[in-house]
Amino acid sequence: MALWDHFKELRNRLIKSAIAVVLAGIAGWFLYDPVVYNLSQPLITIAEETGRTAVLNFATIADPFAFKIQIAIQIGLVISSPVWIYQVWAFITPGLTGKERKYTLGYMGAGVPLFLAGIYVGWLVFPTVVRALLQFTPSTGANNINATDYLTFVTQMFLILGISFLVPVLLVGINMAGIVRGRTFLKAWRIIIFLVFVLAALAAPGTDALSMFLLAAPLLILFFSAIWLCIINDKRRDRRAAKQAVETEASANIATPSSDLKKL
Length: 264
Prior knowledge:
Layout: H1 3-30, H2 32-50, E1 54-57, H3 63-79, H4 81-92, H5 98-134, E2 143-146, H6 147-176, H7 182-187, H8 189-203, H9 209-252, H10 258-263
Parallel strand pairs: 1-2
Helix pairs in contact: 1-3, 1-4, 2-5, 4-5, 5-6, 6-9, 8-9
């Protein structure tokens, strides 16, 4: 394709993605009340338990409307993620070989559900995180939290957990590209376990150790399953390389027929 055709293709993909986000954002507009109620629930609980003020604060007249727009767009981005991620893949895939297309399609098939699973886990654990952070407020203080700052905090936490669920897919991709071998990842198993438990301790939906273990277990299973796949891929690659080396060595000892030489 000519450069201008690539731009037109990109424009079409962006338009389709934008339409999907807008339509999902309309659904997000109607889901605003239950979503905000659940986001505000930790503050309501703190206010009831401690008797101090803990509310979302809207500083200006236009802030509630802008806040609703932001919530609707973010809900729309999550709901429409399969559509716009596919559009990204469809724009890139014409430049890939058939084998590379299969790999990228496999990564998408695994990555999208894992990312959404990470966001869902974030949705489950964020009330505990909010309560844990706000418990340091003195009894004479109040929590008048800016609504936009609160939304930014929740969004960042969701993204961190979503990306953490994507890391195993990234490990497999790096290994498939031949950059790092599976055994190298396995040597860092102590660091992996430590980081997973730190993340689980920060985001565990309960104050007991059992909650931390229940959150760390699926992450550890994902990580070590990815490392296992990397090791299997390394063994398959090594066998293929050894076979090619043997075939090359064998063909090097065979004289080229005179008919082939004449063709050359």
